[in-house]
Write a structure and sequence with these properties.
Immunoglobulin-like; 2 domains; six-stranded antiparallel β-sheet; 1 helix; 24 strands; 39% strand; QUIRKY-like
């Protein structure tokens, strides 16, 4: 059995957050984080903003002259001002608008939120205001819960309340993309809509593997000769071609693999053209096919991908109004096997010369057959590639 001391109140000092290098603890006031969330934004320098969310107002008094209330809210921080939408004849308006002020440009110690009523005489009537001391504004960093808005009674006014939330946050805040920004206050038109979060997400890259197998019912303009055909495939600015079929035939066969790099979200299309090699300097277009990339299946293993036949948009060779007429009754068919490969490293180099062959998907790794150990005993006559060259003989790496 335990002693009586085991049941007494004890003084504990838990560490609620990251420990800083100088020994302090980062925690409290919206600063408690964890490794998973911190690592999401550690590649981007944090930029701080003062956020003001204007939710709604209630019980606003009507103007004694007009007998109605056309309210809007003005958020003022030093020389920066932001205004909400103005409502007509509404004493309980709802705005739910967010304003963001860059912390680097804050030169005022107070934040003022004015509720005003638009008058017909050209000067807006003052209903009331709420003042915040900048030293008392809390800090909120995701994944902290969003700051709940509160009702504030309007000062110096006849009556009324406004619901607000004020906090200091970073560009990782969920409110950043939708906020009105003081940095863009002087920008008009589409420039305002270009303000987006500065937490950048790397696009997911895929290898698009296109196996061009064969084609059928290929016809050339010259009916007296069979066509000698090749296929050109394009994804964005990437263009690859198959070899020219060595024999002249209406059913050419290639079975060639073409590899492209595609990035999500897939906005580009796979463009396939079947062309006839008329001469060394002339190619004749026989058919064309446009396919969105999202029609191809994604795979992370070696499972088989089913091939499919596609009808090409074919052109007739009779001239009408100086252009080729499109025929849809009869068309050339092409046989393809295509998929999006997600199990490999996608590198910034030519897809024809991939230096890293090991897949990223563990299920694609080959079973090891043994271990080869290599040790460096000595090195002589090494010439530095740069003025500073350090050779680590113990690890076998040079830097």
């Amino acid at each position: 059995m335990g002693t009586q001391d085991d049941y007494k109140i004890k003084d504990t000092k838990p560490e609620l957050g990251e420990r800083w290098p100088h020994g302090g603890v980062r925690g409290g006031g919206g600063w408690i984080t964890n490794e998973r969330i911190t690592s999401t934004y550690d590649l981007v320098e944090q930029m701080y903003y003062l956020y003001v969310r204007v939710v709604k107002a209630q019980n606003l008094p009507p103007n004694p002259v007009t007998g109605s209330c056309d309210p809007y809210v003005e958020v003022k921080l030093g020389n920066y001002k932001g205004k909400t939408q103005r409502f007509e004849k509404k004493t309980n308006p709802e705005w739910n608008q967010v304003f963001a002020f860059s912390k680097e440009k804050i030169q005022s110690s107070v934040l003022e939120v004015f509720v005003r009523d638009r008058e017909m005489v050209g000067r807006d009537d003052y209903i009331g205001k709420v003042v915040f001391d900048m030293n008392e504004v809390p800090t909120r960093v995701p994944p902290d819960s969003p700051l709940a808005p509160q009702w504030y009674r309007l000062e110096d006014g006849r009556r009324g309340e406004v619901m607000l939330a004020v906090w200091m946050g970073t560009q990782a805040d969920e409110a950043f993309p939708e906020a009105w920004h003081s940095d863009a206050a002087s920008v008009h038109g589409e420039g305002v809509f270009s303000v987006r979060s500065k937490v950048y997400v790397s696009p997911k890259l895929w290898y698009l593997r296109v196996n061009v197998i064969e084609a059928q019912d290929v016809e050339s303009e010259d009916k007296s000769q069979l066509p000698q055909v090749f296929v050109k495939v394009q994804v964005g600015n990437q263009i690859l071609k198959t070899k020219v079929c060595p024999t002249r035939t209406i059913s050419p066969f290639w079975n060639e693999d073409l590899l492209f790099v595609a990035a999500e979200p897939f906005e580009e299309q796979l463009v396939i053209t079947v062309e006839n090699k008329v001469s060394a300097s002339k190619d004749e277009l026989i058919g064309r096919l446009n396919l969105p990339l999202n029609v191809f299946e994604k795979r992370l293993d070696h499972r088989a991908v089913h091939s499919r036949w596609f009808n090409l948009e074919r052109f007739s060779f009779g001239v009408m109004d100086g252009e080729r007429r499109k025929e849809h009754k009869f068309s050339t068919r092409i046989h393809l096997r295509a998929c999006l490969e997600g199990g490999y490293h996608v590198l910034d180099e030519s897809t024809m010369y991939i230096s890293d062959q090991r897949p990223t998907a563990r299920q694609l790794w080959k079973q090891p057959i043994g271990i080869l150990e290599i040790g460096i005993l000595s090195a002589q006559g090494l010439l530095p590639a740069k003025p500073m060259l350090i050779v680590w003989l113990s690890t076998g790496k040079s830097g």
